[in-house]
Specification:
By secondary structure, the protein is of the alpha/beta class. The protein is about 40% helix and about 20% strand. It contains eleven helices and ten strands.
Amino acid sequence: MRRAIITVFIIGIVLVLSASYIVGDRLSGPALRAIGAPPPDLQAQPVRIPTNSGEYLAGWFSRGNPGSGGVLLLHGVGADRRQGLDRARFLHREGYSALLVDLPAHGESSGARITFGAREGKAVRTALNFLRGQLGPQEKIGVIGVSLGAASLVLAKLDQPPNAVVLESMYPTITEAVANRLDLAVGPAARHFTTLLTWQLPLRLGIWPSELEPLTALPSLGAPVLIVSGDRDLHTTLAETKRLFQAASEPKDLWIVEGAAHVDLYAFSPEVYKSKISGFLSRYLRSSN
């Protein structure tokens, strides 16, 4: 009887480990897909930006009015540059230049694995350098990052920070992000299995969980920041968003979107979004400061 219990226990452990490995493989697997041509109303051109690692970022660049500045748009995990399309249209109408890129292992960009902000951060540096090169040193640069895109920017640890940053629905630490998603997918008890997924990071990706903590890196961002999240977001909770805001350095603003979960915040409330984001970007990209 005792031997049978031990055997069942071992089988259970093996099954749990196997399942966690499969889940980890799927979560970090590439989200590659064909995108096609940019929509005519954006007046954008396709770009292919080489990286220092010998790979490339695919994207669209829409040139705005001289002196208006430019904005880099960074999408969430599993998405691609099209997630920022409505934002880019709104920015284009206001005269800004806009660069939309597929993060590594997303869309049409190269890459074998999603790394939850680590290697994506290096790609953000490349994209910002490209945008600065297109606009020239006199133009100011902003960034709008959504979820993974926001984390990638913060984790990039830039030597030359942007002039304004909007961080939407960003996770504070990878451990909390995984725990929240397990809770939503399976139930609160599943949080106990968080370690079974995060321990795979160094084995599978060569990255330690401690390298994926935007909360720790945020105070050194060096740019005016607007932190945005829905008050019903359970992927990044309201309490976690407030911790991020507290950690950020001045100047900083916080916008909690009432009634919004972990959704596209532009689509949730387009007119309010445009008003809030336009005011923030104009303050820092078009002022003489």
